User: Fold these one by one.
Assistant:
Number 1:
Amino acid sequence: MTPYNKPLPQIDPRQARFWQGLRERQIWLPTCANCAKVRFPATRFCGHCWSDESHWQRVPGGATLQAYATFHKAYWAGFAADVPYRVIQVRLDAGVSLFSNLVGPWPPALAQGARLKPFFDDVTPEVTLLKFCVDEANP
Ligand SMILES: [Zn+2]
């Protein structure tokens, strides 16, 4: 097996439940105890009401494609074989946006608003990355 040579997340205790959830094929996000909005990444204070009280909640993985960019340069050596590659911005149905990658071939007609579903990519024995694929059942 080829060693994974792309950047890996530095998992601090505040983010640990999120990363553990990905290992379990689940998405867990901190949820504000005051206003019930989810946060990503996990932060001490809620960006909506500034409460520092929260609890972890499992959220659905459905998402919508918001935007994408095509990288024509490898900023890390591990991406050199992938150039050009796309980075997508998705909005989880739970209400937060994040950057990721689309798994599989890029559909020619893929556009903003496309429905996506999660793909849990075990890149190392310890780290699973949250990626997405087109949700053919819910276009
Ligand atoms: Zn809040």
Note: Residues 32, 34-35, 37, 46, 48-49, 51 surround zinc ion (CB under 6 Å).
Number 2:
Amino acid sequence: MSIRIDEELCTGCGACQASCPYGCIEIIDDKARITDECTLCGACVEECPVEAIILEREEIKAEKMDISQYKGVWVIAEHYNNKIHNVAFQLLGKGRELADVLKVNLSLVLLGDDFDDKLEELGQYGEDEIIYVKSKILKDYYSDLYVKTLTELIQENKPEIILIGATPTGRDFAPRVAKRLNAGLTADCTGLTIDLETRNLLQTRPTFGGNIMATIRTPSSRPQMSTVRPGIFKIAPKTNKKAKIRKINYDYKQKDSVTKIVKVISREKIKINLEEAEIIVSGGRGVKSKENWHIIEELAEILNAEVGGSRVTVELNWVDHDRQVGQTGKTVSPKLYIACGISGAIQHIVGMQGADIIIAINKDENAPIFKVAHYGIVGDLNKVIPALIEEIKKTKKDLKKNNL
Ligand SMILES: Cc1cc2nc3c(=O)[nH]c(=O)nc-3n(C[C@H](O)[C@H](O)[C@H](O)COP(=O)(O)OP(=O)(O)OC[C@H]3O[C@@H](n4cnc5c(N)ncnc54)[C@H](O)[C@@H]3O)c2cc1C
């Protein structure tokens, strides 16, 4: 696909510039110029009053696929240090819902080693079956072996829906598997439902910088693949049901991969992944400086919470990048989220609105954060937070005194 401006038609009116969500159009010498950052989204094409913007698409001739052969919902589990990533359990919850609507089986697909004694417990999250691909080398994440194995499994078993965590690992293998299968993949979905008439998966995700929600379908090819960020869906409840276990041994050797994992460097520095935290205290630009950031850390410490931040605070280097909450950061769903000096831009809200309880502290009573907050404190965080810390200390002391 390519885009170009017909300079003879262009009047330099600027309508295209105003319509570009990514700021990729400049007006130079009364003519529009598209910069290299253009994503080819096409938003400008319709806005041009003189039809001077031309988006050229190559025609792709895909073979017609018999989609009726595809049945079942798969969740791909990823793991680190022999522990399954929580997002797999969240996807099992959503996967069960989708499978029930479609009246098909739900399978958990696990590529690994050393999971034999964990399979029974793993099979209690509502799935009908666990497909366990066992190979010594797969105790670690080998990108090319994942892509090869999953592609083969999918070609053989033909599931209609595949759900994958939008983690760095999932984001690595999912598009490559989709490419090999000629399948549609929708990244970073925040909602998944079924259109029963067509059995299509309706995949909703934010687009244009989070300002619009788009619902995407893949009507003519299978499987329908979606990645979902951790924290979007709730973990599937444990049941008494036991999943059927299908074990497939793969005799992979080191030479089968183009890479060799020499050492896995653990991320010990991060106490708890934000996505798994039960309480998060997040700071925004309202904290005012790096020197004042300790106020957020102190409130977090007394609550045994993790520290988060808005994108601004990451850009200002007040907090590490892995602590960013929001559209381009982490999606979190803690029991308690305290937003301090955060205005509540949509790109931040999409990352934390799943919290059970949201408390906002902001000196502006009209700040949008109060629209999603369950409790709001209008005031200067430099006064409110120390007062809160004092109260929490007192309450803790009283509880201890009364042996509670
Ligand atoms: C494509 C894209 C992706 C983005 N992704 C993200 C993302 O992942 N996460 C994210 O957070 N943002 C993201 N943003 C940026 C987002 O649009 C906002 O700019 C950002 O969230 C604002 O951060 P903030 O609330 O800390 O700062 P501001 O919007 O400047 O708000 C500061 C708030 O602090 C309050 N305040 C000031 N002083 C005090 C005080 N003493 N006491 C109490 N309150 C006070 C103010 O009233 C104000 O409401 C993204 C933007 C784009 C375009």
Note: The pocket of flavin-adenine dinucleotide is lined by residues 209, 284-286, 310-313, 324-329, 341-343, 345, 347-348, 351, 361-364, 367, 380-382 (CB under 6 Å).
Number 3:
Amino acid sequence: MTAEKNTFYITTPIFYVNDAPHIGHAYTEVAADVLARWHRARGEDSFLLLGTDEHGEKVLRTAQANNSTPQAWTDRLVHDAWLPLLETIDIDNQDFIRTTEDRHKRNVQRFMQKLYDEGFIYQGAFKGAYCVGCEEYKNKSDLVEGSGEYQGQEVCAIHSKPVEELEETNYFFRLSQFQQPLLDHYNQNTEFIAPESARNEVVSFVSRGLDDLSISRSKEKFDWGIDIPWDDTHITYVWFDALLNYVTAIGYGEDESKFRNYWPANVQVVGKDILRFHAVIWPAMLMAAGLPIPGQIFGHGLGRSVS
Ligand SMILES: [Zn+2]
């Protein structure tokens, strides 16, 4: 942050709209709003971003289970449940971005294309497990022995449900290349991940080595997501899409002066269960795109939600 920068940009994880909110969803927003208001009171141009994460297999399945289309389902949830929650708890946010908006989709594609053109994305064979509940690829070490009706099967440690075995040709992001740059960044910016316990967890995770990350899903399985710009038989992995909301909301790709005014974010507040996405994958994506890294990823003790 330079001395003349008088902005304070703070984000919270965008809500995953497979269901209606409960009071736990308000926690991060209230904490971030307090911080944003304090900076505003000091005369800073304080910008709090909120939004909704609307793609992914879980949203599609939930919409289908409710005899709806995913777009109609998310439209209804956003307008009838999520925006009213913000009214109720009186959050003073400066923008609210939905990942189904064109301003988000076209600039996610712009970002993807840039990484692809510069060699950070390649096509490869994916074989492994995927938990739809987590919307996350799982390693063996993330799985546990199931019980009850899932006795004898391996299940997601968080959801206690069987994972999907995927075998697809996907696009991969060269995350492994960023192990050392990330460790260097953590070392040189000791405040980047807070609190200390969160920092220690991430440093030890990255020190063990990083695998390249599958960032697409074949449309043969499901198609509720943003098309890969150079291959319309694939959609973008929902987390790669969702993380980019923090930059598409402030003009990445099309409003350079607004973008430079607010980016990098001063603080990004996240729940502990999504710390790795924000403190490992996200800064690596930004490094690959040649963009500055946020000042701090703050991981609070609660999960993003219990749904
Ligand atoms: Zn899971």
Note: The chain has one domain: 7-120+172-300.
Number 4:
Amino acid sequence: MYHNAKELLALIGDSGKSIADIVIENEMEISEMSREAIMDELQRRYDIMYKACHDGLETAVTSISGLTGGTGKQMWDFIKSGKGIQDLTTQKGIAYALSCSEVNASMGLIVAAPTAGACGILPGTLICVAEKLNSEKEDILKALATAAGVGQIITKNATVSGAEGGCQAECGAAASMAAAAITQLCGGSPEQCFEAAAIAMKNVMGLVCDPVAGLVEMPCTKRNASGVTNAILCCDLAMAGITSHIPFDEVVDAMFRVGKALPSTLRETALGGIAVTPTGIALKEKIFGGGGCSGNCASCGACK
Ligand code: SF4
């Protein structure tokens, strides 16, 4: 059993095992499931992720509120045009993340990894990199297990809730998980996986949670796209031998302290950030009318 990255790396020692090996062994112990059953469950979740990352590419998926939608298809069409600055792998990862996020906003089936709001980052990143590397199924599922291990550590020692720690806790955690996963897929060491995860979290330290109209759509969808580029960037940094200098566990502690220091207006209440810009307020009124209901009962309760 491990509680942080330091303990997990100590369990690996010089065994030659990966982070995924330890995470799967730990899961076998606490769930009393066989390795085969755990790999089957990882496959089931990967299949859901894969579908959500593709459902919004050829057909525009629109949210229930009508606030967002269609960006996965827009990005996919743009990729097909051959234009764009980033390489094809990153472009595809962005389109996958947008699609997945839009499927979530349309109340479709996604895997909360670690949350629904940040659900596009890990699958978008993992799928596009696995395609580039032509990875084996077993290696993809083990990368998913590594992501789960990183998410476990963040959850145990901090939070993955935007309401508790801001968007750094949601999209930051998802980018850390994705960065570690693809670093392992690229052949990085366990230490390099945690370097990538640490840098990804540092890159969005302090990011606020400010959803327009209290809905997990805007800015969430595009932050999922941003999380993919963050994860791929950090994988490349780690694989180049560049380190975070601040260890992953200390970065997680810092993120939690920053989250606690954020005012409640910037933690999913829709009372700060872009949610209260003139356009953000106008969009809210268009959806809910001018009666003042944000749809976010936790921040209001006026109707109770
Ligand atoms: S802005 Fe808030 S609701 Fe949206 S993804 Fe970030 S943490 Fe989640």
Note: The chain has one domain: 5-290.
